[in-house]
Amino acid sequence: MKVPYVDLASQWSDVRDEVLPLIDEVLSTGKYLEHEFVEQLEIDLAAFLGLKHVVLVNSGTDALLLALHALGVGKDDEVITVPNSFIASVAVIQHLGAIPVMVDVGADHLIDVTKIEAAITSRTKAIMPVHLEGKVCDMTAIRAIATRHNLMVVEDAAQAFGSSFAGLMPGANSEAACFSLHPLKNLNACGDGGFIATDNSEIASRIQSLRNHGQKNRNDSEEFGVVSRFDSVQAAIVKVRLTRVKQVIGIRRANALRYDIALKESRVVLPSTDFRVFHSYHLYVVEVERRDVLKSKLLSEGIDTRVHYPNLITDQTAFVNQYLSQAKNIPNAIKQKSMVLSLPIHQHLSESQVEFVASRLKALHD
What we know:
alpha/beta; Aspartate Aminotransferase, domain 2; Aspartate Aminotransferase, domain 1; 366 residues; single chain
């Protein structure tokens, strides 16, 4: 049986008939960048998250970069984050001339909040928790730490649209939350895209300016910015997919529950999740022994899996060349990187496919 890790063709088939007329409207009007679909999508996303503002940009990376920049993070400031994320989480800190400070993770693969305060120095400007896999970090504790030390919080929520902690979605307990609309996300565009969500009107206003060369008007830029506009065609696509995202997350959660039940009595380590987290299952990540051998065996039986991430940020050449001293005291992240395995979890899997994956994983691992 073939089990693909993703099925983007089926995702397009789901929305094709509804989206094509909207794309035709955009192209017919010539409003490639300024169609009302863009502003309406920002309004709809803010309403979904229960926040006042959303600012669309052209990638999740730009969302992080512009949020940190708008909050004044700059040269030699320190930003606390984690090593087991995509390189973008640290690249944006480096681009601003700031310094990433690594804190280890817990069994749930999220930042260990008990270790944050020990990493704070006089130069710390912000904490940037990364909500991996569809799980949200303990934002109650992180916000309390930030308040005690007069720090800002920017959430890397690229993998956590639709997720929450203690009933609050990303952005409700921070200065800003940053999301990705990459094709592999639960809410996705047909290309790169991202957005910043915030309740702070000043932050939103500054990011709106920064994403368009810092312009006050067409011929006057108040500060140097970038070009990070979200185009109207992508807005049309995401606008439709947003109406279906709760259903998508519901199916992914049902698939996760099937895995949980099928693998409960095995030696596979199931995802660890705080009871206060509503998990949207962007990823279903288990821990297994002999991971690479097992991954190869599964593929030979038609089961496609992925590894997020085989190399920590602290392993990568760009980081080692500049921040070698920061790659310390992260034993959990180091241990987990050789064991984590992401199973297919997407909304187009059949029950029989999920059961097949679980049965073969259990047989090959145990």
